[in-house]
Amino acid sequence: MKTRHKRIVIAAGVLICLGGAAALVLNAFQSNLVFFFTPTQVQAQEAPSGRTFRLGGLVVAGSVKRNGVDVNFAVTDTMHTIPVRYTGILPDLFKEGKGVVAQGQFSGGVFEAKEVLAKHDENYMPPEAADALKKAASAKAGASTNVNPETK
Amino acid sequence: MIPEIGHFLLWIALGVSLLLATVPLIGAGRQRTEWMAYARPSVFALFGLVSVAFLCLVASFVRHDFSVLYVASNSNSALPVEYRIAGVWGGHEGSLLLWVEMLCLWMVAVAMFSKHLPQQVLARILAVMGMISVGFLLFMLITSNPFDRLFPVPVDGRDLNPLLQDPGMVTHPPMLYMGYVGFSVAFAFAIAALIGGNLDATWARWTRPWTTVAWLFLTIGIALGSSWAYYELGWGGWWFWDPVENASLMPWLLGTALIHSLAVTEKRNSFKSWTVLLAILAFSFSLLGTFLVRSGVLSSVHAFATDPRRGLFILGFLTVVIGSSFALYAWRAPTVGLGARFALISKETALLANNVLFLVAAAAVLLGTLYPLFLDALGMGKISVGPPYFDAIFLPLMVPVVFLMGVGPVAKWKQAALPDITVRLRWAALAAVLAAMLAGIAAGELHLGATCGLVMAFWIVASIAEDLWTRVGSKSSSVNDVVSRARQLPRAWVGMMVAHAGVAAFCFGVAMVRNYEVEKDVQMAVGDSTSLKGYTFIFKGTRELQGPNYSALQGVVDVSDGSTTQVMHPEKRIYRVQQNPMTEAAIDAGVTRDLYVSLGEQLDSGAWIIRIYVKPFINWIWFGCMLMAAGGLIAATDRRYRRAGKNERSGMEAT
Fold first, then answer.
1. Using one digit for the tens of pLDDT, what is the confidence trace for B222-231?
2. Which of A32, B131, B278, B330 is the most exposed place for a label (fewest CB within 10 A)?
3. How far is CA B118 from the centre of its chain?
């Protein structure tokens, strides 16, 4: 083989490797993205069924019910509330009235969580949960400015 | 008074590093010896200034000086002294100071151990490192001064994050930073070579030991962080693909590629432009790692800072460093020329493939880490990229890497013969498959994932054994002969083999843990028992316990494997100041398995939810990392780096 040919073969080999790797990476990326939804979006059926996504908001006070290793609680963004079912141990910072993010699937009106995340700081609100509350708050504010004149 | 001294010294240090960044560089350009001679003394001065400033911060912590904002935020009068010292790097400002301290340490090391370098080269290297220290000192003094005072002075501090009150956290950041910052040496060597235009095998030989040492520190740092996550986060995982972990993994992947490509540059004078590019990239990713962790863009345990000015500064700094080095690269790299030619089947090709794979892996981690941030910044919604993505890309990328790890060392430089390699490695391949299947059967069941991982581990071991046999055993007639041949093996080769054996141990641990670990969440009242993988766990109840700055409920769990019984003590701690609950797992560590028990929640009935794991061979993961680091150390102390130094010096004296 001539040197030029060798170089071409090596260059082609590298390109094929890179192309294959890029295809692998992008495919894995596409199928493993986890999107985030608020309880309001889930209520409005915007969340995909049969696919894993994240749900964030506040744990409704008084909603946590333990039954052995199974636990039920509700997550709210102050507009809507979604019941969540989980099996296992909740993180240390999981508390009623505090922010939480759950990852899992929504089926039959219940969010089946595979994972529950609460962050490692008392005052810290998971950004997704904070986002959900903000959206709900602005939706409420928008609604109230519309409603107020009529009531007056 | 002490904090003011520290603050003042940092300003002087900024002045010194400004001089260091300019005077020797200009001197090198104009061939002015006395200007270049300025580099070494100012490095020592800089080191002295920053070290004393660092000690000032340590003193403020030890003396409970809560008038210092940073101390008040990260310490408490009840905090034990070792964690007060570790508190220095427990937050954003102090970690920066540690970063600069490490940089000075590396500069001093370069100044001391590179006397054999031509003065011009040394002056340029130290000047480039001086520029980096200017950037970091400015960053610290403008946006994150660790010596800022707090008024009115609080009665007590807000305490160190309980997660960081752990021996692992005392050592993890310094090791990690030694690695991060260590890549600045390779970077400085590369930039100096680009400026000077003298990029050759000698340059690669100078750079290699520095890069290897930086890489070994990074390896240790990552391993410590991972083992910390395992026992301190309380839930048994050892790697979470958290952005903070990814930030340290990316420079490691690029550093690994760099080590291998430097080998080609030194031995064969090829891949030169590529090696320089990797050196720039490895350091850029170290900076990016600092940026990701320190700017607060990540919603993660480690992201301390939330000040956007800091993010902007680092982003600007990053742009300047990466932008200017790439500009320099684009301008100068074509002059460094192509290296020696090589055939399609050769060690060079194997190493080239290794480099491509590591680069792709780093790019894939980068995509998974930054894409969610970009989407969020652009307001296009919140997404997360979890472990499934990284698992899906890492396995297919690492299988060929491990395959090449067997082939590369036995392939010849320049031109290798495929039949020759096949003959040499066919027994290794067969042995690897057989050993993996036997191990699978011994572990209980055979399945594909586990066997695949185990084949990788045994393949590396078998190919090392084959190579060792060829070099030492096959030609020897007596035991003495074997010993004398083994002694003559070059340290660089031994180091490589030890590091590769480390990868094998790592693969073995990962394959075992991922496929054969068993886990159980179980509700247990006092006196209840449960069994898992032949072990019986009996819950004896909890008792109260007072630590220095926390109170805890300590569980008592009797574990028996049929013949012996031992007691394990998982804890649920409440740290008094921050009132955070913390789960402290009880771990019975062993060579073949870890028993892992942690307390979940207490139910109204008084029973506890308890999580139990039996994790086979998990310690092999970190043992493997330590072997890799040990291999790095052996390779970096190869005689030829020292001899090369002496030869060049005597050569220069002769001329």
1. 999 999 989 8
2. B330
3. 31
* Chain A positions with Cβ closer than 8 Å to B: 1, 3, 6, 9-10, 14, 17-18, 21-22, 24-25, 28-29, 31-36, 54, 66, 68-69, 87-90, 92-93, 103, 119-122, 126-128, 131
pTM of the complete model? 0.92
The pLDDT of residue A127? 66
Q: Which of B141, B2, B20 is nearest to B60 (CA)?
A: B2
> Considering CB atoms only, which of A24, A33, A120 is closest to B393?
A24
Residues in chain A: 152
> By the CB < 8 Å criterion, does B152 face chain A?
no
Of B69, B108, B134, B206, nearest in space to B641 by CA:
B206
* pLDDT for position B303: 42
Quote helix, strand, coil % in chain B, to nearest 5.
Answer: 65, 10, 20
In the CATH hierarchy, which top-level class contains the domain A34-140?
A: mainly beta
Partner A contacted by B476 (CB < 8 A): no
For chain A, what are the domain ranges?
1-29, 34-140
In this prediction the ipTM stands at 0.82
Q: Read out DSSP for B536-568?
A: EEEEEEEEEEE-SSEEEEEEEEEEE-SS-EEEE
Q: In what order do the strands lie in the sheet with B593-602?
A: B518-524, B608-616, B593-602, B586-588
**What is the average per-residue pLDDT within B346-356?**
90
Burial B94-119 (b: 16+ CB within 10 A, else e): bbbbbbbbbbbbbbbbbbeebebbbb
Beta-strand (E) ranges in chain A? 33-37, 53-59, 65-67, 70-76, 81-87, 99-107, 110-117
Report CA torsion sign: B115, B119, B123, B124.
negative
Assess contact for B489 and B471: CB atoms under 8 A. yes
Tokens of B534: 């032949």
DSSP designation for B153 = P
Which residue has better confidence, B362 or B639? B362
- Tracing tokens 């940026």 back to the chain, one arrives at B291
Instruction: Report which residue type is found at A133.
Output: L
pLDDT of residue B300: 42
Angle at B281 between CA A23 and CA B88, to 5 degrees: 115
Task: Report residue B560: phi and psi, to 5°.
Answer: -135, 140
